[in-house]
Design goal:
Mannose-Binding Protein A, Chain A, mainly beta, 10-stranded antiparallel β-sheet, 2 helices, binds 2-acetamido-2-deoxy-beta-D-glucopyranose, 2 domains, 7-stranded mixed β-sheet, single chain
Length: 307
């Protein structure tokens, strides 16, 4: 048996949101429900798959016959000895420094990728495996769980995937009286990565530009009733959270120095400070401003479990 030729492509193109490798070998798609046909030569076909987060495998017989398979489209591929029947599948392979030893490697993993058709983020769990008996590769995946809108960003939390979005009031530059509404849809900040997302959004609206007023947004986090007026309640544990996938001990609430403080009926907000740093602060739930009266609360950070 001749050794299988393997080609390892590591994707570092800026448009690619998922780092991956293509395992290149020979095979014939056996069971599949759909594929995309493109008139591309093999190298372009491989590159096209690498750049499409939704693509899990490609096949071609002869140049100009590129068949792209997205997650869910393909079930099995049989090994082929036909040198013209080229087949490649994509794996995330966390160990990018290690070249897989052969073409029978598989993995169980998940991706958060961008569906190029809708521009929305998608979460998919999948398993790729090789069956020695039937000499075929098996592809299984959960149906894609789609972000409700392109402005949402998905985060994979320990308790399940969650989409975060930032809702500003329509007339947020005119009004500053956005009290805490007891929606269940407010999101907490599970990880520093989620905090970073809020920072990026704030930056995209120039909130760190010193010629702008100071703004803030509500998050999930309401002072527990037994902690109102009770100075023995300290830190994050004085607050309760409606957010269903927030960890028991979230690490993303990066508080301003000395915060949270006070024993009032407070809720939590992400805010820009007067020195244009940012952090989490506590503010009176029934006020549209931070307690130092400097920042205006103009919206909320919402979270949605995937549909
Ligand atoms: C794949 O190729 C098709 C046809 O040439 C092109 O329209 C599409 O943008 C390509 N996709 C990627 C991700 O490069
Ligand atoms: C990466 O390599 C480490 C150490 O060899 C191993 O424990 C781990 O399972 C590998 N991860 C993947 C995704 O292959
Ligand atoms: C990408 O989005 C399109 C349009 O919303 C949808 O038809 C397609 O199934 C999606 N593909 C995946 C793999 O999620
Ligand atoms: C800050 O905002 C002002 C007024 O809109 C603008 O002229 C300036 O370029 C901004 N500065 C930066 C660093 O974006």
């Amino acid at each position: 048996m001749s050794p299988h030729t393997l080609l390892l492509l590591v994707a570092f193109h800026v448009n690619i949101s998922v780092n991956s490798v293509m395992i290149v070998t020979r095979g014939t798609p056996d069971v599949f429900v759909n594929s995309i046909s493109l008139e591309l030569i093999w190298e372009e076909c491989l590159a096209n798959c690498t750049q499409n987060d939704m693509c899990v495998a490609v096949h071609t017989i002869g140049d100009g016959n590129c068949q792209i398979f997205e997650f869910g489209d393909l079930q099995t591929v049989k090994r082929s000895n036909d040198i013209e029947s080229k087949f490649a599948y994509k794996m995330k392979n966390g160990n990018l420094s290690t070249c897989p030893a052969d073409d029978t490697v598989g993995e169980t993993n998940s991706i958060i990728g961008i569906n190029g058709t809708s521009g929305r983020e998608v979460y998919i769990e999948y398993t790729i495996s090789f069956d020695q008996t039937s000499q075929s590769w098996n592809f299984q995946s959960t149906s894609p769980r789609l972000c409700p809108h392109a402005r949402y960003k998905m985060f994979k939390r320990a308790l399940g995937p969650m989409f975060l979005a930032w809702h500003k009031l329509l007339l947020w530059k005119l009004y500053c009286n956005f009290i805490y509404l007891y929606y269940d849809a407010y999101s907490g900040i599970d990880t520093p990565e989620e905090f970073e997302f809020l920072k990026e959004r704030a930056d995209s609206w120039n909130w760190f530009n010193s010629s702008y007023p100071l703004y803030a947004v509500w998050l999930s986090g309401v002072k527990k009733p037994e902690c109102v007026g009770n100075p023995s309640c300290q830190g994050l544990s004085a607050f309760s959270f409606a957010d269903p996938t927030l960890s028991a001990h979230p690490t993303g609430f990066l508080f301003n120095p000395g915060k949270p403080d006070g024993t009032g009926e407070d809720c939590l907000a992400f805010r820009v400070n007067s020195d244009r740093t940012c952090g989490i602060d506590n503010a009176q739930c029934d006020q549209g401003r931070t307690s130092d009266n400097s920042a205006c609360i103009t919206g909320q950070v919402c979270g949605l479990p995937p549909s």
